[in-house]
Structure of Transcription termination/antitermination protein NusA:
Amino acid sequence: MNVEFIQALDDIEKDKGISKEVLIDAIETALVSAYKKDFGSKDNVRIDISTDAGEVKVYSRKEVVEEVENENTQISLKEADKIDGKYKIGDIVEIEVTPGNFGRIAAQTAKQVVMQRIREAERDVIFDQFKEKEDELITGTIQRFHNDNILIDMGKTEALLPPSEQIAGEKYEIGKRIKLYVVEVSSTSKGPRILVSRTHPGLLKRLFEIEVPEIFQGLVEIKAVAREAGQRSKMAVASKDKQVDPVGACVGPKGMRVQAVVEQLNREKIDIVKWDESPEVFVANALNPAEVIDVKINKSDKIAEVVVPDFQLSLAIGKEGQNARLAAKLTGWKVDIKKESEIVKSPAKTKEIEKSAQELEKSLDEFEESSEMENEDLESKQEELEVQAEETEETKPEKELE
């Protein structure tokens, strides 16, 4: 190595942010391995690199002992005295053993180490950059296909879009720019592994955050998202300002905002519903566009029993149960949908009606009995009054004579 190489390390430190001391330590470690490999040495050696002149020297380190058992790591006190009389038992003696052609080996090794460290530093920078973008939206260009995987060009690195994260039926063409949701960023020996998705519910959420200013400003909050990618999604929103309609804000004038998101998701249908603290109201809203008559909540079993008009049953359930399934995902409640006529004709309802009729009939009987008793009491009192009247008439002439 030479002075120019040392100066190059200074430039690398400035441009790449890799410490010069760290690079020199790494070069010295690599040179120890290179020396032992190329010269078959088993000695305990130390490499010294002069940062001024760029010179590289190899020193064999040996411990001073009374009796040598291992010539590779030990030296006798007598031999140590020949080098310098100051050494004592237990001291370390360093003897220069630099080979004549070691400069060439040192230069090649140093270059390899520096290049490796630069690559590692760049990987670390990319990893840190994309690690911050986990759960965020990014835009990339479709670069190539590998088996069923799609590799996305992100500039300095590639992102992986596996089959499980691709929208079924969506066309992916090389050179096409698409928006993606960053699911996970992990570090590997070959660099950062960036896993992206087109099916994640978070993608829908982030797209609405871009299209709807009220969400960005914090006036409207996305409470929950349920998605069957490429087919249909449901999103529950709430407003922090009573004057702002959360659903209307997300739909936008003439549906422009929601339509912009639909275009980004391969024409996926999106239902936007109003979130509510009441589970009964929220479940009813989640089944939109179906009309709901009644909702009863079973908290212990986490079941919402929903009653809909007969003609709305198929709409509430949806094609292959999709509407009900998405409503369940959105609300977190298991949704049990029944039509109105089933509730009326059900055995439980019939028993309830019969029980009510029996109670009503019993009440009427009690009322009639009470009325009859009151009538008998009235008749008895009337008879007593008539008797008293007759007695009064009979005694009246006598009183007049007196």
